[in-house]
Amino acid sequence: MQIDPWPAPRATAPVVGTVTMPGSKSVTNRALILAALASGPSVLRAPLRSRDSELMVGGLRALGVEVTGDDAWHVTPNPFRGPATVDCGLAGTVMRFLPPAAVLADGQVTLDGDPRARERPMGRLIDALRGLGAEIADDGRAALPFTVAGTGALPGGSVTIDASASSQFVSGLLLSGARYDKGVVVHHDGEPVPSLPHIDMTVAMLRDAGVTVDDSEANTWRVEPGPIAPLDLAIEPDLSNAAPFLAAALATGGRVTVTGWPARTTQPGDALRDLFTRMGALVTLDEHGLTVAAGDRLTGLDADLHDVGELTPVLAALAALAETPSRLRGVAHLRGHETDRLAALATELNNLGGAVTETEDGLAIEPRPLRGGVFGSYEDHRMAQAGVLIGLAVDGVAVENVATTGKTMPTFTTVWTELVSPR
Ligand SMILES: O=C(O)C1=C[C@@H](OP(=O)(O)O)[C@@H](O)[C@H](O)C1
Ligand SMILES: C=C(OP(=O)(O)O)C(=O)O
Prior knowledge:
This is 3-phosphoshikimate 1-carboxyvinyltransferase. Pathway: Metabolic intermediate biosynthesis; chorismate biosynthesis; chorismate from D-erythrose 4-phosphate and phosphoenolpyruvate: step 6/7. By secondary structure, the chain is α/β, with parallel strands linked by helices. The protein has two domains: 6-22 and 238-420, Enolpyruvate transferase domain (UDP-n-acetylglucosamine1-carboxyvinyl-transferase, Chain, Alpha-beta prism); 25-138 and 155-228, UDP-n-acetylglucosamine1-carboxyvinyl-transferase, Chain, CATH 3.65.10. It is built from twelve helices and 23 strands. The strands form six sheets. A four-stranded mixed sheet has the order 2-15-17-16, with helices on one face. It has a four-stranded mixed sheet with strand order 4-5-3-14, with helices on one face. Strands 6-7-9-8 form a four-stranded mixed sheet, with helices on one face. A hairpin with a 4-residue loop joins β20 and β21 (363-366). α1 packs parallel to α2 (51-62), α1 (25-37) runs parallel beside α6 and α9 (312-320) packs parallel to α11 (381-393). The chain starts with 5 loop residues before the first strand and ends with a helix. Residues 91-93, 310, 337-338, 382, 408 line the site of phosphoenolpyruvate (PEP). Phosphoenolpyruvate binds next to α3.
């Protein structure tokens, strides 16, 4: 247990070091769904072990899937069966990826989650599943909790969905679509879909598993019906969780390397290379990994983060430490994340003396000297990371419920402390 609020370590010298990230949440939870729907047993090597991935494992086990192992997960699929109950916690990947799979169960599956999970956008996905032939009882709430009444198969076919609130609606439908009788064709109709690299990740992982996917037309994805091949997959390190560690170099005039950075990846965290460069960092990708070193000055950032929204909390914290103003745009959908991240970032940074304004689709951040205080984390792992980063550069910052980082990285405070205050 961590002391709550957790006194964030203050850097006494430039942070210099090397860190290794646990596996990617997004890759692990996609791989689990694919393995559960595959035509034979799969092996997932170096999976992320965290609240979000353990919830996915728990949900799949409730449906009858066998998952064993430790450093590698062995997944043995079985036909999904109900009755079952699934706890989605606060995991977007569980609440959006599991229902499209659960509709294939023979029997009833009830899904629920944390109180905040009941407020996260879900209704469009429920409607889309109904359009594909699923029977779902949600008491008219268009949100968690709801119950899927499956018959062991789903007709599938063509469906139109407004996925402007979350790319995960599309990814969820595509991940299971090959197992629907007619496959699935998903058309998006609405404001632009956020986090497109995450949909590219879904498509790439489906193709690697032998599924035919056509994404040649904008806002339309076609998944042919057919088997999903068993996986033997080494999970990439989580590049979004690398953000605070790399930012530690920039906040202190130091240099940090993240090992095992993939040369090619669909993870949106890869955009950090460009984003940190634009803030004045010196960035090198070589056989040692990704190294980010502070340049002469830390400048603010004017960027559209629509594709990489999950990087926003850490970038906003770093921007609050920069010498020039920042504008973070294109991330209105963050109001539906673990918390309303735009409101939470403005509130918490301003509590420490910052000058942060919420805009219609993002944040405007003016440089200001910050002071100590308690930084609220709102059960949001990335808010906690943002607060810890501020505490590295500002005296007397304590982060409330830092344990919430366990959503995607239970080792966060240990790895952080070892990096920033080496013995
Ligand atoms: O598919 C995924 O793994 C994710 C998609 C994104 O969701 P949104 O499109 O809802 O932002 C991202 O923010 C989330 O952290 C993970
Ligand atoms: C938005 C995020 O998570 P989730 O998968 O719960 O949507 C995130 O990790 O930044």
